[in-house]
Amino acid sequence: MLVREVMTHPVVTVHPGDTVRRVIRVLHEHDITAVPVLDDTGRLVGIVSEMDLLRGEFDPDPRASMRPLPSRPASSAHRVEDVMTRQVVTVTETTDAATLTDLLVSKRIKSLPVVAGDHVVGMISRRDLIAALARPDEDLRSDVIAALREQFPSGPRWDVVVRDGIAEIRATTGETEEHDRIAGLIARTVPGVVRVTRPG
Questions:
Q1: Is the pTM of this model over 0.90?
Q2: Cis, bond preceding 153 (omega within 30 deg of 0)
Q3: Which domains does the chain have, with CATH numbers?
Q4: I want to staple 114 with a disulfide (CB 3.0 to 4.6 A). Which of 2, 47, 122, 132 is the partner?
């Protein structure tokens, strides 16, 4: 499974000059946890996350303590450029899900921009991967069969069984070694298929 098969697109983006409060509303309205920051030319210059936006937004509430609370200076971060992360970790559309998962876990991040050259073409998140893994096996089986029939409308034909995202493909008619290889690749394009096996 490749990033392009499960990523979210089109992409919601913000500008370095946008206010922190505006971007908070953008994340809330779109139910996302981070958003790429693009400059006037459309170049990726940063990413801003929930964590970035939360820093300094709340004053201590005096009701939470019996002792007087020390005063805190007002936050000077009013624009995205003041809080965004400038060193952005990215992936491409052809990054595979295994590599992506390792990256998300090792870097302890929730989502990443997907880039093609200098352009942001999508966002991919842990939530996207969980959604793919949560798809029912019967839906995966139907999608695999449909994809195989689209590629090979005149045959051969396959029996497909999916258990916990693992697709087992068995040819019933006229299969060649090349058909077998292509069938495995096609099955992997279905979001939620984590492995393809052959019986025996």
A1: no
A2: no
A3: 3-60+78-133 (3.10.580.10), 137-197 (3.30.70)
A4: 122
